[in-house]
Amino acid sequence: MTTAAVLAALATACGLGSWCFTTARWTSRAPKTAILLWQALGVSWGLASTGAMLAFAVQPYGEGVLHGLVSFATGRSPLVPWDALHVVAMVAGLTALAVLVAVLLTAGVQTLRARHRHRTLLALISHDDPVLPGVRVLDHPSAAAYCVPGLRSQVVVSQGALSLLSKDEMAAVLAHEAAHVRERHDLVLLPFAALRRALPWSKVVRDAQAQVELLIEMAADDRARRYCSPRRLATALLRFGTAGAMPTPHGMLGVGAHNLMARVDRLLKPAPELPMSLRYGAVALSVTLVTSTPFLWIYQL
Q1: HEC string for the chain
Q2: What's the N-to-C CA distance of the chain in angstroms?
Q3: Which of 187, 234, 268, 276 is deepest in the core (most CB within 10 A)?
């Protein structure tokens, strides 16, 4: 019972923490740290919420969640006879866990299929450009710049973007897209998209996904300005915003996808960096959340 109560308390704390985190103002000053904390909150909430039900369900075995589930799966008799509450908790816990795993796998498969179809399409309607080695150029008058993540990642720009941007601005945009590819921001987004599928009615989940989408764009902006002028990147974003850029295809990551004005303002008027003590505190909290939940699944309190 103690393990179930601790896991339920941890799930509640993660839920409340996520709700408070959606309005936090420091995240733009340290987007990578904020992304890490968001990931820890999401993973811990999922494991704690399902683990609380399963910990109560396997209580008759007198073992932790994992060992209790193994005993249940192998047909071993419990130390205490089952009752209706434990049976309901087992059904609810396994169902919730199955739903979370299923939506994650479904989201991953659908994203992979969308990227495969898009790569096939790009092979037909795009071409290489000697001026931009390694970049696929799409013959389309609207402005577009995005990456197709994966093992065979591609960066795509449209002819409209080439006409719209100067050479320096295009270099800034390509640095932004390279950051998405290098840091695999698509994998960061996948669990939040899956959670949105599982809980489409939840405002907290919807806000969390929107926050993470904006944070990965800010993180890519930060990496891009190591190689280019922040003003050039800000100008490119403004041009995309005023030109009515083409929407980024499903499953891809685009330079002008989210909250352009907030990103432009951040590039032109950067706020002071978050103190290292707060960064380390957020990282320590993330590590604690991610490690404590599996511990509670394995060991009984």
Answers
A1: CHHHHHHHHHHHHHHHHHHHHCCCCCHHHCHHHHHHHHHHHHHHHHHHHHHHHHHHHCHHHCCCHHHHHHHHHCCCCCCCCCCHHHHHHHHHHHHHHHHHHHHHHHHHHHHHHHHHHHHHHHHHHEEEECCEEEEEEECCCCCCEEEECCCCCEEEEEHHHHHHCCHHHHHHHHHHHHHHHHHCHHHHHHHHHHHHHHCCCCHHHHHHHHHHHHHHHHHHHHHHCCCCCHHHHHHHHHHHHHHCCCCCCCCCEECCCCCHHHHHHHHHCCCCCCCHHHHHHHHHHHHHHHHHHHHHHHCCC
A2: 8
A3: 234
CA 160 to mean position of chain CA atoms: 30
| Residue-level length of the chain | 301
For residue range 47-101, what is the model confidence (pLDDT) as tens digits?
Answer: 999 999 999 988 888 888 888 888 888 888 888 788 888 889 999 999 999 999 9
Higher pLDDT, 255 or 284: 284
Question: What six digits make up the tokens of 170?
Answer: 């295009």
